[in-house]
Every structure is written in structure tokens, then in C-alpha cells.
Amino acid sequence: MEKTRMKRFLFFSIPIIISLLSAEAGSDQEWASLKEAAKNIRSVKSEFLQKRILPILTKPLRSEGRVFFQTPGSLRWEYLNPLRSVMLQKGDTIRLYHFSEGEWKPEMTQAVEVRRMVIAEISRWFQGRFDESKIFKNLYVPGPPVRILLTPKEGVDKFIRRIEIFPGTRPGVIERVEIEEPGGSRTSIEFRKTEINPNLPSEIFEKP
Amino acid sequence: MIRRKILFIGLLGSLFQIFLGCVPLTKTILSPGSPEDLTTCTNVFPVGPWESVHKIEAVITGGVSFSLLGVTRGDPNKRRLHSFLLTPEGFILFEGLLGEDGMTIQKAVSPFDSPAFAGGLMEDVKGLFLPPPGKPARWGRTADGTRVCLWEGPDGFETEFWEAKDQDRQILLRDDLGEVIKEVSLKGPFVNGLASYIELRASKPLPYKLKMTLLQISP
User: What domains can be seen in chain B, in order of their start residue?
Assistant: First the structure.
């Protein structure tokens, strides 16, 4: 069961193999400074543009959305178009909704468990807790560009190849995430208009 | 009083439409179709290789609903379809191939991994984007000018295609008893034979409804 869930998660999150051989692991000091920067983050508000590249499509599939994060464990990951949907995390409670026929409806199907695992993973990224994932190994690559490379821990790279997280120039800000799957599928998420430590009402993490 | 008359006329109209949808085409009076009508029977489906992205809103048994993205690549000449269903995040829930050798499921996550579900899904995709094989058994026009084409399947099932003068289109699938089991409404504008909006209502064996909005098409 656990293995299946992990496979599904990896399948979703998507991948990598970076040129691990050419990558140089950063020093413990650099790694620590990255985590230290994230420690100063209490909340984040950002918009994102997601491009999904599938080998059968000549044009990438574009989605737009926004994300809200607040320590210690609140996250709102919301797609505004072409489909409206939202994943909400507050503490250990994670809920998913989609907007259909003029109202928000709880998500009942579609790999909900997998998506819950994903939101928990993203929540860790915003806190710089890359080394706490049970699914990925992490590597600090000094670059340029500086990036954090996540690779699946077990032999499940047939579903996922790698995830690369590119920190921005501002401490603690994530600029871009690249996810690679075997078979040529990729996902790129670019964050923009990022605000650090804005005041966020608690209901933003509770209601769709 | 006038309002009641209007309501009555509206009701009559609705009943007529329902009645029309329930009467097998074999019992509908058609003026003989021209050779041009026969050509257009198949031209209402995409011609040549294409790829599309749809927003899909589905309501299944028990009122459970979900929203997905549907990616399809088709080659009508080879009667080949390659379809994906994705969550809004891009997670691939289903990947299926339909070709001359039959159907192959490449990837499937529950509940799309059940053979019945996967088979039904690809049947729907085929019914929406590929004309039935062979030549229509009957074609022609109704009294109001609606163009109609009928294909007979080997299992006694029939597929009817209706195109009104306003260009809105309808596909009906009837079982061997002549009962409509799937009804597809196609709304324009049409791009390379693909409707901008599709609504599919299935009644048998399980009822469900799909609403599909065209987001992207190539070439």
C-alpha cells in the first residue's frame, strides 16, 4: 500500500536525474545558510505560472494560480485557470476542492491521497526543510544557478526522475521549480510577484 | 393568460424535442440525402491529425463530480487516438491508446484503472472524435432541413448524427432496443471539426454527464 502511494506520488510529482555526476554538492555552510534564510519566513504570497510539457502536445499546457504559505504548516495552493481547484493545508488537515457548476465542491476522487502528499512536500520546501522528506534525497548544487536537487530515494525512478528547486536572489524565495518525468514529460512552475511575510487571514487556509 | 400560452407552447416544444430524440431514426421521415450530404456525414468529425486540450467537468453516479484536463491526439486516417486525463496539477490519471489493434491502457490511477471504466472512457473519446466506421446506412434531411446520418453497428446499436441549420450538432447512440443510451450535444464555433463545447449525457449502464470545453487545439 505504502509502495503504491509512493509510486503514485512520484508519478505525479515528476522528476529527474540531473547530471548528478557533474553536480557539486555545496558545503554544509551553504546548505545551512539556505535553511537559515527560510527560517526568517513567516508567510509567503505568490502567483505562479505552470507549464506542463507532454511529448504528444506541440504546445505546453499552461495553468495559472497562486500560493499562500504561513508557518508552521498552513498552505493554500490554488489554480485559477484553466481549471479552478484548491488544496488547503492547515496543520495536519488537508482538504481539496474544485470549482464546478458555480460552486466549490470537495474533491472525492483523483488520487486525493497523492495530492495530499504533494502539498505536504511543497509546504516543507517553503520552510527550507528539504532534508525532511521521506521520499526524496536532497542535494545543494552551488551552480550557478544555485539549486536544490531532489531525487527519489528508492528505485522508483521509472515514475520520477528529478525535481530541481531554484531559489531566488532574495533569501528564502523560490523562483522556479522544474520537474522531470521519464518519457520526456516535464513541468515547470515559475513563481512571481512573491511577497515575503505578508499578513494573511487564517480563513485563507480554511475555506476554498 | 398570454404567459400561460407561452409556457404551454414552450412545454410542447420541449416535449417534441424529447420525443424526437427518442424516436429511432429508422422511423423518422427523411427526404433522400444528396451525395454531398453523404460526404458531410463524416466531415463533421476532425479531418487529419490533430491534438486538443479540453476542460472536463464530470458528474457521475451519486452526484460525485470532478474536474479534469483531457489531452487527446487523433489521427482519423489511421483511426488512432491517444488520450490523457490529468488533474489540475498535471498528474496523469489515465493514458490510453486506441488504434487498429484495439485499446491499450498505458497508465491508470484508481478509479480509471478498472477495465470497465477505462474501456468506457476510450469508447466515449472514440464516439466524440472519430466517425463510426464505414458508410452511413441512411442519410437525408428532416422536414425542417436538419441533416441526419445514421450508422448501424454490428451489435444492433446505432449512431445518429443530427446537424441543425444553426450548425449545432447532436450525436445519439441507441442500443439494440432503439433506446438512446448516450446523447452528445456539440456547440460551435467549430475549429478543425472540433466543437468549442461538448456535453455528453449517458443513461446506461450507469448515468453520468460530461461537460467539455475546448481550451487548445493544434494544428
Answer: 25-218 (2.50.20)
- Within an 8 Å CB–CB cutoff, is residue B67 touching chain A? yes
- A172 closest CA partner among A201, A195, A139, A203: A195
Neighbouring CB atoms inside 10 A of B137's CB total: 15
The class of domain A25-205 in CATH terms is mainly beta
| Cβ separation A83–B109 shorter than 8 A | no
Residue A204: the pLDDT is 94
For B71-89, what is each residue's pLDDT tens digit? 999 998 888 999 999 888 8
What are the start-end ranges of the E strands in chain B? 31-32, 50-59, 65-75, 80-86, 92-99, 102-108, 138-141, 147-152, 158-163, 169-174, 180-191, 194-202, 208-218
ipTM of the complex model: 0.71
Q: Which residue of B has its CA nearest to A5?
A: B109
B91 in contact with A at a CB cutoff of 8 Å?
Answer: yes
